UniProtKB/TrEMBL annotation:
This is Outer membrane protein assembly factor BamB. Part of the outer membrane protein assembly complex, which is involved in assembly and insertion of beta-barrel proteins into the outer membrane. Belongs to the BamB family. GO terms for cellular component: cell outer membrane. It comes from Colwellia psychrerythraea. Part of the Bam complex. It holds the Pfam family PQQ_2. GO terms for biological process: Gram-negative-bacterium-type cell outer membrane assembly; protein insertion into membrane. It is a lipid-anchor.
């Protein structure tokens, strides 16, 4: 049974890092034994009479998925297609309506150099896909950045960045921005792959392996750091703008003082919302970087902002709804404690999250009550579902991509 994403710490061996994770109940939990500390116990799913049964629009496979590795690969929708990838290097485009395969590319042999006798070597895809300018962009743990033609899958250009690309790039105004785990942030010409600018950020000796996805808004690149800060860079040339502290290092050990801002910031109107893996959820004025309000919540999962609400999943899998204007909590749900719950996605009148056993859970937006459940694949859901026009696109660890429609409930009064 899969218990958690492999959040490996930099500066430590894998063996030591995993030992730390298992010993630190404040970050992750993975036990289902009654003899263990209750704070580390994995919640069992209670019996549920579904309020509705979802419709599977179509279901396809994307290679072997990501297996047990930490990954933020997830399906995206663009140009009337659905694009997704596997860790080994399969990139697939499906027709949005029918699910028919349009093209497939293999990043592990993108130059067609592998002979019949050679074994396949994983491309280690971990960042993306993201689409723009009729292209699909992806990054790998080897520091490779690929641009593929969105219609054919043909390689348009390939570039390099120092460090692992384990989060999706961002694109706007013809510039592709790529963040790497080594602290290098690069702006590329999205048409040619030529480097336009480069920024080298300081990275603490001990950080969570996840890094922040860059977000582009109002001519700036907004990005979180391993130091618990949110900062902005000018998109055109990479100059630094404001920097604001989000995380708070309160412990006495290095582990307790890990305060990464790994979740992508969310821009909504003239405000930015961000959360630290240990510390705070904050609302920040986009123009100045001034903190408008701050609340003590910790997460490395994607947050969701919808109308006047913010939905978050904290480090223990508890789900919260807060007022966007003042940060006051509206409701919480702790029924999925320690189930490696994904970030929340808004679908119609519901909030949807996935878990490590491959279930999607539909929560009532107003009350937080779980009203329906659907299992995609027992290998687990690892990344926040993608939602476009109230259709869910989600992918399991084994590469099962499902497109799911949520029925609208019509009340008796209507």
């Amino acid at each position: 049974m899969r218990c958690f994403d492999k959040k490996i710490f930099k500066g430590l061996s894998t063996k030591k890092a995993l030992a730390i994770i298992l010993l630190s109940s404040s970050l992750f939990a993975c036990s289902s034994s009654d003899e263990e500390d209750p704070s580390t116990k994995v919640a069992e799913l209670s019996d549920l009479d579904n309020a509705f049964d979802v419709e599977i629009v179509w279901d396809r496979s994307v290679g072997d998925g990501v297996n047990d590795y930490f990954s933020r690969i997830k399906p995206i929708v663009a140009y009337n297609k659905v694009y997704s990838a596997s860790r080994e290097g399969d990139v697939v485009a499906f027709d949005k309506e029918s699910g028919d395969e349009v093209w497939q590319a293999d990043l592990s042999d993108i130059h067609d150099e592998r002979s019949f006798w050679d074994s396949r070597v994983s491309a280690l895809v971990a960042g993306g896909p993201v689409a723009g300018m009729k292209k699909v962009f992806l990054g790998t743990e080897n520091g490779d950045v690929f641009a593929l033609d969105a219609e054919t899958g043909e390689l348009i250009w390939q570039a390099k960045i120092k460090g692992e690309v384990i989060t999706p790039p961002a694109i706007d105004s013809g510039i592709l921005v790529v963040n790497s785990a080594s602290g290098v942030l690069k702006g590329f010409d999205a048409s040619t792959g030529e480097e336009i600018w480069k920024v080298e950020q300081d990275v603490p000796a001990l950080t969570l392996r996840g890094i922040s996805t860059p977000v582009i808004a109002s001519g700036g690149v907004i990005i979180g750091s391993g130091k618990g800060e949110l900062g902005v860079y000018i998109l055109e040339k990479g100059q630094a703008g404001w920097t604001t502290e989000v995380g708070e290092a309160t412990g006495s050990t290095e582990l307790q003082r890990v305060i990464d801002v790994d979740s992508a910031p969310v821009v909504f109107g003239d405000k930015v919302y961000a959360i630290s893996a240990r510390g705070n959820l904050v609302a920040i004025e986009l123009k100045s970087g001034r903190i408008l309000w701050k609340r003590q919540y910790s997460s490395y999962r994607q947050i969701s902002v919808y109308r006047n609400d913010i939905y978050i999943t904290n480090t223990r899998g508890h789900i919260y709804a807060l007022n966007r204007i003042n940060g006051i909590e509206r409701w919480s749900n702790v029924e999925l404690t320690n189930r490696s719950v994904t970030g929340p996605a808004v679908v119609d009148d519901y909030v949807v999250v996935g878990d490590f056993e491959g279930y999607l859970h539909w929560l009532n937006q107003e009350t937080g009550e779980i009203v329906s459940r659907h299992q995609v694949d027992s290998s687990g859901i690892y990344s926040t579902p993608t939602v476009v026009d109230d259709i869910i696109y989600t992918q399991s660890r084994d590469g099962d991509l499902q497109v799911i429609s949520t029925p609208k409930i019509v009340s008796a009064a209507q």
